[in-house]
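Dear colleagues,

As part of the handover before I leave the project, I'm documenting each prediction I ran so the next person doesn't have to rerun anything. This entry is a single chain, and its sequence is reproduced below.
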Amino acid sequence: KDVDGFHVVNVGRLNTGQSSMVPCTPLGSLLMLKHYLGKLEGKRAVVVGRSNIVGKPMAALLLGENCTVTIAHSRTADLPGEVRRADIVIAAVGKAEMIRGDWIRPGATVIDVGINRIERDGKSKLVGDVAFDEAVKHAGLITPVPGGVGPMTIACLLRNTVTAACRIKGIPEPT
C-alpha cells in the first residue's frame, strides 16, 4: 500500500538493510548513479539535506552500496569543504543554487534533487539547489533542473506501484 515508502515500517526496514518500499526520489537517484558509475563501493558521498523524504533515505541507500556517507545541511560548518571531498554530491537542501560550482570536486557526480522557483531577469525560473552553470564546469556528471531527477521519481513511483500490486496478488515481483 505504501508506494511512496514513507510509512514508519518501510523507513525502519530501509534503515536496517531489509527489503522495503524505497522512497521514489532517493531510489531514482540511486538507479541513475549505478547506471552511470557502476559500483559505488568505496566512493565518498555527501548528502546535503536531512529530510525524511530524500536526505535520510538517500544516505541509507548509499550506505547500503558501501559508500562512505556524510550527511550535511544548510548549517554544517565548512559545507563547501564537505562538498569538495565528495565523489558524489546529492543536493537536497531546499535552497536555490546554494551549492556553488567551486565547491564541486573536479569530476564529481552531482545529483540535484532541489526544485526552486526564482525570479531572474524579470522572469520566473525553476532552478535546483546547485548553481548549475557554475557546477557544470567542474562536475563529471550533473543532473539538470528541471528534467533530471523528476522523471526518475515518476518511474520509481510506477515501479513501486507494480511491486505493491504483485505483493497484494501474491505473484512474483518484476526484477
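DSSP finds six helices and seven strands in the chain. The mean pLDDT is 95.

All the best with the project,
I.
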